[in-house]
Amino acid sequence: MKAAWYTKTGKAADVLQVGELDNPIPVAGEVLVKIKASGINPSDVKTRAGARGELQFPKIIPHSDGSGEIIDVGEGVNKNRIGERVWIWNGAFGRAYGTCAELIALPELQAVKINNEVSYDSAACMGIPASTAYYGILANGSVKNKTLLISGGAGAVGFYGIQIAKLAGANVITTISNDEKAKIANNAGADKVINYKNQNVFEEVMEYTNSNGVDRIFEVEFGGNLPLNEKIIKPNGVIATYGSMAKMEPKLPFYNLMFKGIKIDTFLIYSIENKFREEILTGLSELLNQNSLKHMISKTYSIDKIIDAHEAMESGSIIGNIVIEV
Question: Do 40 and 59 contact (CB within 8 A), yes or no?
């Protein structure tokens, strides 16, 4: 099979290779998927660059997200699954061979059925961006008639987060940094869009909520935005967060948060509890198959252009999802 891989960490141009590898064979409990699209995420390029430490395996095919068609199954898997169109999650988490190849063999639970109307490119965005959004919005209970603040509403995760929150009946405030991103957040359905570069977020939120604040916060930058969030979160609210790059070891205003009864839910979408994973797989697949979600595929590449794709992701200039079409 044709695949992209690396055997050491470093710059994309220095370590990524494209060539032929042996076809994988599905073992008991696995399916063999012919990959149609491979989704790239920031975590994929960070792992390749060495930000996640030493390599876990001698050779790594990158990317955890993907989509394709099941063409074979291992022992114990219903042969009726052959021919299914699927989206893939955790393809490269704790595994040597991810989705940036013509074929992947992985546990059947990690290949989730989609219908014929779903595009492979959009399905390749479900594993990390959409799943992160689904968990962050819904894991702490219903958001119907609640007011949410979603930071970074034009990012790949935030874009899905706004839509999922609106579909669940929430009122959504989001923050962005320029006019282009404001259009994206509005397109996702946000009720209130705040440009944190030239607007006072605290004042805007409090004016919009009649000084009540927000019930929930879905946060991409926990440490950097904590001084704001501790002020605008309502008593007994929840801050669900999946990142804190600006302040990786933030100072926690413990008593301010404790007296308000604030719950902080930090999570890594790769390793959430099984009960939440089942809810995500069911919920996202329903939204995907019903064409309820908009997708933001900003750039596609061929597998031969894997270096360009990784460099584009690292540049930070791409708003939305990047997909390798295999």
Answer: no
* pLDDT tens figures, 66-107: 999 999 999 999 999 999 999 999 999 999 999 999 999 999
Terminal Cα-to-Cα distance of the chain (whole angstroms): 11
CA-to-CA separations, 164 to 17, 135, 195, 206, 297, in angstroms, rounded: 37, 10, 21, 23, 17
| Half-sphere exposure of residue 188: CA atoms within 13 angstroms, side-chain side | 35
Q: At what angle do helices 131-138 and 274-289 cross, to 10 degrees?
A: 110
Q: Which of 91, 190, 156, 112 is nearest to 313 (CA)?
A: 156
Interatomic CA distance for residues 132 and 110, integer angstroms: 16
State how far the Cα of 188 lies from the Cα of 104, in Å rounded to an integer.
32
- DSSP string covering 149-211: EESSTTSHHHHHHHHHHHHTT-EEEEEESSHHHHHHHHHHT-SEEEETTTS-HHHHHHHHTTT
The distance from CA 180 to its chain's CA centroid, rounded to whole angstroms, is 21
Q: Judge contact between 64 and 270, C-beta under 8 A.
A: yes
Which domains are present in the chain? 2-125+295-325 (3.90.180.10), 129-270 (3.40.50.720)
- In this structure, the number of other CB atoms found within 10 A of the CB of residue 195 comes to 16
Residue 241's DSSP bridge partners are: 219, 266
pTM greater than 0.90: yes
Radius of gyration of the chain (CA): 20
Amino acid in the structure at residue 301:
Y
What the block records as the tokens of 179 is: 């006019």
d(CA 152, CA 197): 12
CB atoms inside a 10 Å sphere around CB 295:
23
DSSP secondary structure letter of residue 59? S
- The position carrying tokens 């509005």 is 186
Burial string for 84-101 (b: 16+ CB within 10 Å, else e) reads bbbbbbbbbbebebbbbb
Across 185-202, average pLDDT:
98
